[in-house]
Amino acid sequence: METVKKTLRDSAAMRWLMLLLLSALMFATYWFQDFYGSLKGLMESELGFTSEEFGRVIGLTTIANMFGMIIIGGIILDKWGLRLAGIVFGGLAALGGAINAMATAGVFGSDHNTQLTMMIIGRILFGSGLEVTCVVATRTIVKWFRGYELALAMAINVGFGRLGSALGLAISPDIASGHVAPAVTFAATLMGLALIIFIIYSFFDIKIDRQTKAAASGEGTPDEDFSWRDLVKLATNPSFVYIALLCVTFYAAVFPFIQYAPDMLVNTFGFSYNLPADGSGDITLFGSRALGNASIYIAFFLFGILFSAVPANLKTKMQQRVTMIVVFLLFMVFIYVLRDTLGQWLNNGPKTASLIPLGTILFTPIFGNYVDKKGKAASLMILGSALLIFAHLALALTGIKIMAYAGLISLGIAFSLVPAAMWPSVAKIVADNRLGTAYASMFTVQNWGLGLFFWGIGALLDLVNKGNLEAIRAGEMSYDYKIPILVLVASGLVAMFLAFKLKQADRRQNYGLELPS
Fold first, then answer.
1. What pLDDT does residue 497 have?
2. Residues in a beta bridge with 272
3. Average pLDDT of the chain to the nearest whole number
4. What are the DSSP calls for 96-165, one per residue?
5. What is the pLDDT of residue 321?
6. Contact criterion met (CB below 8 Å) for 80 and 184
7. What is the largest CA-CA distance in the chain?
8. Closest by Cα among 445, 427, 508 to 238
9. Quick one: angle between helices 12-34 and 82-104, nearest 10?
10. CB 413 within 8 Å of CB 358
11. Contact indicator for 57, 36 with CB cutoff of 8 Å
């Protein structure tokens, strides 16, 4: 009788260690993508940026990906493997981060146009590597977790990305301390560290490829060479088309909003940019305010994992229920102890805006585990799109703080539901050896939407308020965000329609999106 040889991926400890190494890449890239959102006011006052210029910097991050960089990266991934794609494009993103840091520090010159130009160049380079590294991370998780806890692993990986977004938004003003450059330098340093960690991961990747003879990883046998027919097949698959368009319309209503959310909360709902000067809104850890505040977000993420991963792996229903009750009680104690600090945060624009990714930190692992155990992925995408619509309506049509909180929490839950259901669903729709190309195609289409909305929201904001811009910059008036946010409502409506169409297509094509992973 032949003995089945086990590989590294058959060890639960090794799988989850690899997830941690890969998630460092997601954490750093999402931090760098979103952290400018909490610095918009400071960039206007210190660097002289307008809303349109702010939108141009973050919007042009996607320009290379709009014209095929992710497709090229996906082809490199499928032909030459995860390691080369991760190192090359991770290095490109880190280089872009370094240029941004040098630009804000005045290395290239201190005049406004030079800083703006070099920041745009840096963000373009960062963006050129950003999405491909996300494809690499997603594709690698499929490699390690297919047949195991795939949806949960993807959800936790997404959770690390959202943790990066939340910390970038919430902690960057603490790091900045009144100047843009320190916050940018810190974010760029994270990118460099993440690249080093991925290189460490590569040694494990080499070993598992040797164990499996590269047959199961889709990394390079002659009969698997990339063909443009693969893109045609994807483009003519209704389920893939619907999920790709859902990806772009959903994320276009979320990621650009995150960049403007702190400023919107300050201008529309009367939140502040700064915490009280007496330090009552801060947590200090080892003498560091930024580290102390960051620990709160990390605790939320750990509670999310405890709620989802731990009970699911216990043997009896009684053990699961007892564990859930204990974790819930600990969570409530955690909230009670921090009630004064959290009360201050809920009046601060950047901290409150971080409720969006903070919600995903808590809920994404829970929803990912639900998809693994129960399925219903297409239905969850419909629900997530509906929550997205409610969130933006609450933020656009009222100036009441309680509705701002309700909208942000709903958006955070939606931002958990849809990714937790969507990314594992792609692995059901597309053959394993073409997942790199599939994810790359989705990210390419997504970047068209993000590029338009990143820049468009800033340009529309200036257009809607063009008669009051001088008074706004003098602090005499506030930006009116109503029309830009209603545009995001329309994007959410389209996302919901596409989620319904995806569910209908799955009934015809039988990919099993409603079935457990």
1. 94
2. 348
3. 81
4. HHHHHHHHHTTTT-SSHHHHHHHHHHHHHHHHHHHHHHHHHHHHHHHHHHTTSSHHHHHHHHHHHHHHHH
5. 82
6. no
7. 82
8. 508
9. 30
10. no
11. yes
